[in-house]
Amino acid sequence: MAAAVTMLVAAALLLALLPRAADAAVGVNWGTVSAHRMPPPVVVDLLRANGIAKVKLFDADPAVLRALAGSGVQVMVGIRNEALAGIAASPAAADAWVAQNVSRYVAARGGVDIRYIAVGNEPFLTSYQGQFQSYVLPAVTNIQQSLVKANLASYIKLVVPCNADAYQSASVPSQGVFRPDLTQIMTQLAAFLSTTGAPFMVNIYPFLSLYQNSDFPQDYAFFDGSSHPVVDGPNVYYNAFDGNFDTLISSLSKIGYGQLPIAIGEVGWPTEGATTANLATARAFNQGLISHVLSNKGTPLRPGVPPTDVYLFSLLDEEQKSILPGNFERHWGIFSFDGQAKYPLNLGLGSPVLKNARDVPYLPPQWCVANPGQNLNNVGNHLKLACTMADCTTLYYGGLCNAIGDKGNISYAFNIYYQLQKQDAKSCDFDGLGMITYLDPSIGECRFLVGIDDRRVLARSSYSDSSSPVSCGLWLMTIWVFVWFTIVGSF
């Protein structure tokens, strides 16, 4: 019997080390710039319920990483641009960052499956005017050395998410080159990525090309073919994504790294905030993108070779993001802020729809609206306060609540501020112009939200669910091994 037990333990260890099933081809960006943040375990449950096996984070939030522990989701953690200077200047600072944000979670029991560290986020963006440019490569070098010291360098790869403005083309993809001020840096970065086996990561946004250029053909932004294809010698491009992707390949080829793997760090389409941003266009783009990637068709310069990873932007709406680029900035999510699916989307896992978040800790079902018995002529200052503090972008042109009338707009603004203030009764006063109601005032597609109660702590965690396919499969296999060895040992 002792021999059987020994063999059982060995078999269980072997099972734990076996390769997992094929990973999902498409991941998501999980941003947290929101005043209505769902508890991280609820978000992790949302990921798992929809079979999303890869997630890209913009920092290393401890609560988020604790929730991801043992989930089976592959994780990319991020170093913010503001931290690059300190890490670039000090190997000790890099050691501390890795110890604090990576090692402690990887080493923990049922740890976080961290696969990538993003060193900065679009640090070469033109609008930064070189602010972070000189820090990137030294920071990469120091973090890599820290991973080596922690015995993690063979498993965790470093990437630098770049905006597509890092390269340019006069007219066609084959003429793609890196910006002159980046040629040397990109050559050194590509050499590092080639040595470590990491991909070049780029963010591609056909929506922004369409939004910023009135002459951009709308059908070229999508994946159903275009009446305005780009002809580049023997290659013909029918969508902007492929054209942009191959422009990067041409740029890499010109510095000697044309075979470097490429990952897409961000790509997506917003649901409101611009004339071309709505539920239909967002669904058409994202579904077209997913189908294109899963087809393994590749691009004219890389036929049959899709990107190594694709991360949709984004998982959830973030109503506290800056709207300087446009009102659409707060509406990129495939889910609303509270994890409710905005439109049907097949992520390539068989289901044509997304599953909504469960166990969301909402505030009580009550709303703040304009008092119908009051004169609203002097409401201007109150609206300014509400919409400065809270998110009123859905009321503006291109928003789902743009057409609900003046009184509806006032009520929406009052309510969004009231929910931001966690339903504090004083925040619905507005000098007597507001009133609390228990009847949902939503109008058609214009949803009057109820905020999230971040004071409520969920008793359960997403990764302790014993019904998960991974844990059930391992448990059943362990039982089978035990029974098998018991039978064999009885002869």
Automatic annotation (TrEMBL):
**According to its UniProt record, where is this protein located?**
Cell membrane
Per the record, membrane topology reads:
Lipid-anchor; GPI-anchor
Q: Which UniProt keywords apply?
A: Cell membrane, Disulfide bond, Glycoprotein, Glycosidase, GPI-anchor, Hydrolase, Lipoprotein, Membrane, Plant defense, Signal
Q: Kindly state one GO CC term assigned in the UniProt record.
A: plasma membrane
The main place the protein resides is membrane
Q: Name one GO molecular function term.
A: glucan endo-1,3-beta-D-glucosidase activity
Pfam families, A to Z:
Glyco_hydro_17, X8
What range does the record give for the signal peptide?
Answer: 1-24
What reaction does this catalyse? Hydrolysis of (1->3)-beta-D-glucosidic linkages in (1->3)-beta-D-glucans
Q: State the InterPro entries in the record.
A: GH, Glyco_hydro_17, Glyco_hydro_17_plant, X8
Q: Which GO terms describe its biological process?
A: carbohydrate metabolic process; defense response
Ranges where the X8 domain occurs? 366-448
| EC number(s) recorded for this UniProt protein | 3.2.1.39
Instruction: Tell me yes or no: is Disulfide bond among this UniProt entry's keywords.
Output: yes
Keyword Repeat (UniProt): no
Give the family from UniProt: Belongs to the glycosyl hydrolase 17 family.
Name of this protein: glucan endo-1,3-beta-D-glucosidase
Species source reads Setaria italica (Foxtail millet)
Task: Name the gene.
Answer: LOC101772874
